[in-house]
Amino acid sequence: MKRSIFTIFMTLIVANIFAQFNLTGKVVDNLGNPVVGANIAIENTFAGMATDASGKFQFRNLKSGDYQIKVSFIGFEMIQQTVKLAADVSLEINLKPSEILTDEVMVTATRAGEKTPMAYTTIEKEDLQQHNSGQDIPYLLSQIPSLITTSDAGAGVGYTGLRIRGTDPSRINVTINGIPFNDAESHLVYWVDMPDFASSVENVQVQRGVGTSTNGAGAFGATINFQTMGINKKPYVDLNNSYGSFNTSKNSITAGSGLLDDIFTLDVRLSKVHSDGYIDRAFSNLNSFFVSGGFYFKNQLLKINVFSGHEITYQAWDGMPKASLDTNRTYNPYTYNNQIDNYTQTNYQLIYSNQINRALTFNLALHYTKGYGYYEQLATGQNLSDYKLNNVIIGGDTIRQTDLISQKWLNNDFYGTTFSLQYHQKNIDLTFGGAANQYNGLHYGNVVWAQYINFAQKDFEWYNGTGKKSDYNAFAKLNLQVLKNLNLYADMQYRGINFDITGTDENNRDIAQTHQYSFFNPKLGAFLDINRQQNLFFSWAVAHREPTRDNLTDADIGKRPTYESLNDFELGYNLKTMAASVNINIFYMDYNNQLVETGAINDVGNAVMANVPASYRAGIEMSLNIHFNDMFFWSENITFSRNKIKNFTEFVPDTSVSGGQRSFYRGQTDISFSPTVILNSHFVFKPFHAFEIFWDAKHVNREYVDNTSSVDRSIDPYLVNNLGFSLNLKSKYFKESQFQFLINNVLNEKYVTNAWVYSYFDGGVRQTQDGYFPQAMRNFMVSWVLKF
Predict the structure, then answer these.
(1) Tens-place pLDDT, residues 363-379
(2) Domain architecture of the chain: domains with CATH
(3) Which one is predicted more confidently, 170 or 358?
(4) How confident is the model at residue 457 (pLDDT cuts 50, 70, 90)?
C-alpha cells in the first residue's frame, strides 16, 4: 500500500513537472469587436505575438505556473494580467480605449512593424539607461548586430561615430520622431552636438539595410529612428551623476509635471558632460537641454519639443602616426591652446497627431534646426597668398609666409514639414507619408591672427560659400495579410533634391554648381508565419543616394561624381520560445557607382571620392538570446560578411609623372572599414533581485583603411571586454536608487577603431602619411541615479 501511494505521488510530481498546457484567447474592444494586430507578450520570456484577423492568439506547450501577460495596442490602455496555468486556459481580454492619444503614434509611419520584412532591432529606454553614464549614443547602441563604434578622443565622449555593416555614417538615415536629423550637406549626424540625448529617448529602432521608407537623407545601409520621451502621468524627478577615468563626468536632472488637469505635461532635462579624453588635450565640454510640452486629448495630441546642445571640444581628429602607437598611445599633434571646435545646435519640433477613428490616424510635424559655430586652428608656414593676404615687406625683406590662426565657420538653417496618414483595418495596414525640407548653409573662413600683420578689422575673411538644398519625398506603404499566415509588403518612395552651391572654398577655388536628382525607391517583401514560434521573411529594396557637398566641391569640373544606387536583398528567419530566441538574416547589397576613396586627387592635390562601377556586401547576421532562469541571461550576435569592390584601380599622387598621379589596377579588393567578422556578447548574472553583474564583449576582425586590401594599411583585429555591477534599491523616501560601477576594457586591450592613410610618390619612392585612433586602456566609471 505504501509503495502504491509513493508511486502515485511520484507520478503526480513528474506529471506536474513535465505537463504542458495551452494558453489561448481573444482580444476585443469595448464593443466586442476583435482587435487585430494587438501585441501579446509574456513578460520575462521571449514569447510574444500579434492577434490574427479574428483577434485571437495562442501559446502552446507552456509549463504549469504563473505567467504575467501584457496586452497592448495603439489607442487602447495597456493591460497586464496574471494567469495561473495548471490546465489549458482560454481568455477573453477586453481592451479599454485610451483616454488620451499616446506618443507612439508619432513614429509608426517611419518604423518597421512586427510583420515588416526587414532586419531591425528596437531598444527600449530601460536598456539604454543601463549603460548611459555619459558616453555618446553610438556606444549605447554598440551591442546591435553589425555595428562598430569609434571615438576620436578614445573615451567615447566628444567626436564619436558608428558604422553598420561597414556602412559609413553619411549613409545612415537618422530621424527623431520621424523628423530628419542628418546634416543636409554632409549627410552626417554629429553626436557631439546632442550630448546626453539618450536621457530623453523613449526607444530607438535600428533598421539594417535599406529598411522602410523614411524622411531625410537616403538610407543607404541603415536607419536609426528615435522616439523621444513619452507621457509620464505622475510627477517625477530623476538625478543622474557619474564620474570616472580621464576626469569624465555627467550631471543631469530630469523632471516632469505629470499629467495636469488630465491634459497637459511638461518634461525638462538639463545635462552637463565633461571629459579630458584619453588622448592628450582631447577634452570635451558639453551642455544640453531638452524641453517637451504636450497637450493630450482622447483622439488628438499636440507636442512641442525643444532640445539643444553646445560643445567645445579640443581637436583630436588627426589621430596619430601608426609608428607612435607602441611608444605614445595618447599623442596629439595639436598643441595650440585654442585648437577647438565650438558649435551650438538647437532643434524645434511641433508635432500634431489626430486619431480620426479607430482605422485612420493623421500626423503632421513642423521642424526647425539652427546650427552655428566654428573650429579654430593654428597653422604654421602658410602662404599669405593662399589666404588672400598681401605679402609683407619688413626692412626691405618680403615676407611671403606666416604663422596664423583661422576660424572656419558654419551658419545653417534647416526647416520643413513631415506628414503621414495611416489606415489600419483588420488585414490591411496602409500608410501615405512624406516630407518637404529646406536647408540654407553659409560657409566662411576668417583669419583672426597672423604674424607680421595688423588687421584693420577684427577678422579677415578669405573664403565664403553657400549651400541651398531642397529635399522632398512622398511614400506609400502597404502591409496586406493575404492568407492567415502570409503578409505581403509593398513600399514605394519618390524623392527629389535640388542643390545649389555658390562661392569659393578654403583653397580659393570657384565651387559654384547646381544639381538636381530624382529617385524612385521601390521595396517589396513577404512575411510568412511558419507557426506560432517561427517566421520567415524576404525583401528586395532599392535605394539611391546623392553625393555630399564635399564629394561635389572637392572634385574638379568634369570629374564630379554621380549618385549611387543599391539593390538590397534580405532573407530572415526568426524563432521564439519561452526561454530563447534565434534570429538569422542573410543579406546581399549590390551597389552601382558606390562612392569610395580611390586615392585620386583634385587640381590642388586634395583627395577626392570617386564612383566605382560595381561593388557588393554579402553576409549573414545571427542572434541568440537565452533566458536560462531568473539569474542568468545571455545575448550574442555575430556577423560574417564579404565586402568587395569587383574591379578597383588605385591612384597614387606623383608629381614626376604626367597627370600628377600613378594608377594601379588591383582587381577585386575589400571595401575599406568593412570587417568580415563582428561579434557581440552580453551576459547578465543576477544573484538576487536588486543586484546584477554584466559582461559585454565585442570582437571586430581586421579592417582595411583604404580599398587596396593592404595589411600594412589596416586596423588589427581586437576583442574588448567591459564588466559592470549594478544595484537597484527602493525605499519609501524615493522611487528608485541605482548604483553602477563599470570597468571598460577590463582586460586592458590595446586596440584601434579608426584610421586614415594618404600615400604619394616622392623621388620614385612611395611614402605614407597616416593617422590612427587608439582607444582607452582599462578605465572606470561609477554612476548614481536617484528617482523620486
Answers:
(1) 999 999 999 999 999 99
(2) 17-98 (2.60.40.1120), 104-227 (2.170.130.10), 349-444+463-787 (2.40.170.20)
(3) 170
(4) low
- Give CA angle at 693 (692, 698), nearest 5°: 135
pLDDT at 687 over 60: yes
756/601 Cα distance (integer angstroms): 15
Of 508, 537, 549, 541, the residue nearest 524 (C-alpha): 541
- CA 368/CA 351 separation, integer angstroms: 12
pLDDT score of 219 = 86
Region 71-94: mean pLDDT is 81
The conformation of residue 323, written as its DSSP 8-state character, comes to G
Residue 426: the pLDDT is 81
Higher-confidence residue of 518 and 131: namely 518
pLDDT digits (tens, 9 = 90+) for 264-314: 999 999 999 999 999 999 999 999 999 999 999 989 999 999 999 999 999
Give, in order, the Cα–Cα distances in Å from 708 to each of 345, 646, 649, 673. Answer: 38, 12, 9, 12
Task: Kindly report whether the global pTM for this prediction surpasses the value 0.90.
Answer: yes
Strands 20-28 and 89-94: parallel
> Mind listing the pLDDT tens digit for each residue in 546-574?
999 999 999 989 889 999 999 999 999 99
Any long-range contacts for 622-625 (C-beta under 8 Å, 24+ apart)?
622/582, 622/583, 622/584, 622/585, 623/145, 623/581, 623/582, 623/583, 623/584, 624/580, 624/581, 624/582, 625/46, 625/580, 625/581, 625/582
Residue 753: closest CA among 717, 781, 723: 717
The pLDDT of 562-590, averaged and rounded, is 95
Write the Ramachandran bin of 622: left for phi over 0, alpha for psi from -120 to 50, otherwise beta.
Answer: beta
Burial 158-184 (b: 16+ CB within 10 A, else e): bbbbbbbbbbbbbbbbbbbbbbbbbbb
Measured distance CA(763)–CA(746) in Å, rounded: 47
Answer yes or no: are the C-beta atoms of 19 and 63 closer than 8 Å: yes
Cell numbers at 20, concatenated:
504542458
**Ramachandran bin of 503, using left for φ above 0, alpha for ψ from -120 to 50, beta for the remaining angles:** left
Question: What DSSP assignment string belongs to 52-121?
Answer: -TTSEEEEEEEESEEEEEEEE-TTB--EEEEEEESS-EEEEEEPPBPSS--GGGGTGGGS--TT-SSEEE
